Automatic annotation (TrEMBL):
Every HTH lysR-type domain range: 1-59
Transmembrane region(s): none
Organism: Bosea psychrotolerans
Keyword Transcription among record annotations: yes
Keywords from the UniProt entry: DNA-binding, Transcription, Transcription regulation
UniProt cross-references to InterPro entries, sorted A to Z: LysR-type_TF_proteobact-type (IPR058163), LysR_HTH_N (IPR000847), LysR_subst-bd (IPR005119), WH-like_DNA-bd_sf (IPR036388), WH_DNA-bd_sf (IPR036390)
GO MF, one example: DNA-binding transcription factor activity
Record protein name field: DNA-binding transcriptional LysR family regulator
UniProt family annotation: Belongs to the LysR transcriptional regulatory family.
Gene3D superfamilies linked: 3.40.190.290, Winged helix-like DNA-binding domain superfamily/Winged helix DNA-binding domain (1.10.10.10)
């Protein structure tokens, strides 16, 4: 077995916390993972992973090797960058949130396909975080803080949660000046993608939670936008979702001083794997395009 591949398997075992998890992550059989670990331990002459019926725990020797292995794998990946690019071909599976994927990922995927005629892309749009290993996905675009630290992350921007309303609505009902004023307004609630009836705000280094009593509850972003444009009340959206309407004056941004901290926009891949040329090329291309996308660029002075 290739020695770098052996180290990548070892790192994946530590990151996944189990042989089965490493096998899923690397798309290998569990016996192959077990043999690789046993071979590495035999060659080194030390136990690297302490095994119990409940968990795997790296030994002191294992922890030392993991640090060195990560450094070697990173050096290897960096060295590849100085070599002529390998062919970009085969199937690339990418996932992104629905609205962001429609507006910003689909166009750059189409452009990427034009650059690589031997490549096929499957774009999976979903407003839930799909498991990259279980779903056999190569790259994901995620919005928000990631609970899974076993992902390799590349930040490409950030978005804010904005409070908006249509000018026609604000002609009938004065714009809120304080958070407490929201209670006197009609509210459109977006309960899609895990949304609830609590609105969280920031401002002044403090956080606030406001329970809302919506007149209209919707589970899909585009429908929330339609209702907000029609003057049905206050709505809360991610800044990229409302960007076009705000720029056109169709919607008005309210109480920006109380917006919570921005959420990162990130490209992620599973850790413990050597990136295929198609994955590396797509990440570099997508990052270069998204970093210049105004709707996710950090706002000056915020």
């Amino acid at each position: 077995m290739d020695r770098l591949d052996e180290l990548a398997i070892f790192v994946a075992i530590i990151d996944a916390g189990s042989l089965a998890g490493a096998a899923r992550r690397l798309r290998r059989s569990r016996p192959a993972i077990t043999r690789a670990l046993a071979g590495l331990e035999e060659r080194i002459g030390a136990r690297l992973i302490a095994r119990t019926t409940r968990q795997l725990t790296p030994t002191e020797a294992g922890l030392e090797l993991a640090v060195a292995a990560r450094r070697m794998l990173a050096d290897y990946e960096e060295s590849l960058g100085g070599v002529a690019a390998a062919p970009v071909r085969g199937l690339l599976r990418v996932t992104a949130p629905l609205a962001f994927g429609r507006r910003h990922v689909t166009p750059l995927v189409a452009e990427f396909l034009d650059l690589h005629p031997e490549l096929q892309v499957e774009l999976v749009l979903a407003d839930r975080n799909l498991d990259l290993i279980e779903e056999d996905l190569h790259v994901a675009l995620r919005i928000g803080t990631l609970p899974n630290s076993r992902l390799v992350v590349r930040k490409v921007g950030e978005v804010r949660c904005v409070l908006v309303a249509a000018p026609a609505y604000l002609q009938r009902r004065p714009a809120p000046k304080r958070l407490a004023d929201i209670a006197g307004h009609d509210v459109i609630a977006n309960v899609g993608a895990g949304g609830d009836l609590i609105w969280r705000f920031g401002g002044g280094g403090q956080s606030s939670r406001i329970a809302i009593t919506p007149r209209l509850i919707i589970n899909e972003v585009e429908a929330v936008l339609i209702a907000a444009r029609a003057g049905r009340g206050l709505a809360r959206l991610l800044s990229y979702q409302a960007a076009d309407d705000l720029a056109a004056g169709v919607l008005v941004r309210l109480l920006p001083e109380f917006e919570p901290s921005p959420s990162p926009v990130q490209l992620v891949v599973p850790s413990g794997q050597r990136l295929a040329p198609k994955v590396r090329a797509f990440i570099d291309f997508a990052a270069s395009r998204l970093l210049h996308t105004s709707v996710i660029r950090p706002e000056p002075g915020r």
